[in-house]
Amino acid sequence: MYLIKNGRIHVGDGTVLDGCDILTEGRVIRDIAPGICCQEAEVIDASGCEIFPGFIDPHSSVGAMGMPSRYLDNQEKTDPLTPQLNVKYAIDPDEIDAQEFYKSGITAVGLTPGNANVMGGQIAVCKTAHMKMADRLVKEKAALKCSVTSEVKSVYGGRNQMPKTRMGAFWIFQEALRKAKAPEEQEKGKLICEIFEKGSMPAFVAAQTAGEIQGVLEMMKTEHTSLVLVDGYEFDRALEEIKRQNAGLILGNVSDCSQVTKHGMDLGKICDLNENGNLVAFTASNGGFSEGREVFLWTAIEVYRAGADAEEVVKMMTLNPAKMLGVSDRIGTLETGKDADLSIYTGHPVKTYAARVRTSMINGEVVF
Amino acid sequence: MAQTLIQNGTIYTMEDGDTVFTGEILVEDGKIKKIGTRIPEEELSGDVEVIDAAGLNVMPGLIEAHSHIGLFDFNGESSVDDANEMTNPVTLSIDARYSVNPQAREFKAAYSHGITTMLLTPGSGNVFCGLPFALKTYGNNVFDMSIKAPCAVKIALGGNPKGTYGERNQLPMTRMGVAQVLWDTFRKAKDYMEAKESGDHPAYDADMEAMIPALKREIPCKIHCTQHDMLTAIEVANAYGVRFSLEHAWGASNYIDEIVESGCDVCYGPIGTYRAAGERRKVDIEAVKTLDERGVNVALITDSPILSEESLYHHIGEAVREGVPYLRALRMVTINPAHVLGVEDRVGTLREGKDADLILVKGRPGLDTDASVCKTMIDGKVIWQSVS
């Protein structure tokens, strides 16, 4: 049990609490209230500090690529349609541990198949501190990873297999959706039907250019799954369509070769999406490959510098990704009953670079 | 004579021992003519343009000591690698100026974020990669923008040259092979130089000629290395008495004593990389704090356009996050890299007689995350200003 006193609490939903304490018990937060007393609890004094829910990168390749070898474990490049694959079996926890994610405030990641397949497999949510797999795995089958980016074309087109073009990739996607509705379909088709017809899990679709984004939106108009665009570098050129369909956006790493990806990007338009109610989140990945833990925060900072409100940005780092992954019942906000995953920062990391993680807690354990 | 007077700004001169103060800067003929709390009337000519910097910080233009803008050219339909002449492990006399696309949009990204001087260098595909140069970031012609060429000899250790030549079953396929190329080339260059000095006339060799300024300590070697490769770099460079900097230097915290004793500079970065096994496993920007405290000249680098130009702010910020005092961190993108480039007599601080390369900033870049540049001045001319 820990009693965290005197900190400023950022709930994660945009609100900030002053004068409240946090009491944890076991894995979860037992209470958040002013002046909590609890003899058994170890007191952590967070005077002058800011407490945030653990940040969540909902789309990470780190640890999903498996052990270094010729074939990455999250890229089953043998068939453009592999929705049935579960990324859980690719996870190398040592690789996640080596990143020290919690030093950048990140306590959970959505581990994902790569961008090579039109439907690549199912995303799992995993905590970033070293502990038993059963304790750190928040959810498997959290979302279906799809991709219409040029990587699909280069993988299969390079073998003279379909898809060699963008229209080919969309054709495969649409045919899979159409066939899945046929009564005689086998396991894979039934799964696709469950996802897209009945909305059993959201679809995370990697799409970078305006053309790719608009194609995905058009194709998904009649489907019932919730749609989250990944990377989305030209989101600002398809803004009205994204707003109309209320699609989510996991904005890719904008510090990597960014004058290409960011060329002309109006990052300030993120505020439009946010005000419209579209869920926005960030990832340290670009094209299906993650970079270091720092760039997650850097993207958040760029969005803040482009004009977004700091607490809205915090929401994009916490509650929004939790909602996208369907795990907001457990993580993403600091509330009674939720997992005690939090960072005690010396300042507000969205506002000042001087902010540093003093203490990191995952599943109620102090991990840093 | 046209003058510009910058008033009411909070001035960060970045000179030794200087504190931050509210004052005025008088610019004339592209140079800083006078700087102080108040410029006396008699210094002013009739033709003075006044810039009110109230509420703004006035700092030297930022300097990036390791960039490939326009050499890795991402500006067309497909990206072009003009940075790596990977046809021989030793191509040390090739001149980076001839590879740069002067229209690269990254130059604007640089100066609009306050970066006014950069070192542009060949990539790391060879052991001896070529000749970097220093330039101002605004202009149409790279040769006119250039302020020192060459300003170093670029050398690379580790996975890059190994990957290039190992694939072809040529030396160097290993780190042993890389070290061999280093020793051989330095020895040949020294022999060549000594032969010339003793009055012999060795057959002209462009690579050996290009090495002479480095052997004479007129320009440094910039040595790409990470982790334990830095021990190789230090051993060879010290054996030949050259000035040098360790570039990238991931893992430096394991070799602090060796670095301090060698007397080298460190150009640290970029960070923000995935910690993969091997050269990337230890990315330790906290090392710059210790290095700085122990007297090593440290610059922060982004490797742009591999990372964005503006990610220089993030690099200052991550150093600050690791406990480097803000003004020390700011030195790592101003006067410290000016020394690495050998242009500290012209840029890197705000001092009378130096180039009028300065920025007016709302907030403090690398500390306040929403800091933004309002005006960028290079050689006394405002070459960029924000719309608002």
Automatic annotation (TrEMBL), chain A:
Residues 303-367 form the Amidohydrolase-related domain. InterPro entries: Amidohydro-rel, Metal-dep_hydrolase_composite, Metal_Hydrolase, Metallo-dep_Hydrolases_sf. Signal peptide: none annotated. Its cofactor is Zn(2+). It holds the Pfam family Amidohydro_1. It comes from the Bacteria. GO terms for molecular function: hydrolase activity, acting on carbon-nitrogen (but not peptide) bonds. This is Amidohydrolase.
From TrEMBL, chain B:
The keyword Secreted does not apply. Keywords: Hydrolase. Residues 58-382 form the Amidohydrolase-related domain. One of its GO terms (molecular function) is hydrolase activity, acting on carbon-nitrogen (but not peptide) bonds. It holds the Pfam family Amidohydro_1. It comes from the Bacteria. This is Hydrolase. It comes from Sellimonas catena. The lineage of its organism: Bacteria, Bacillati, Bacillota, Clostridia, Lachnospirales.
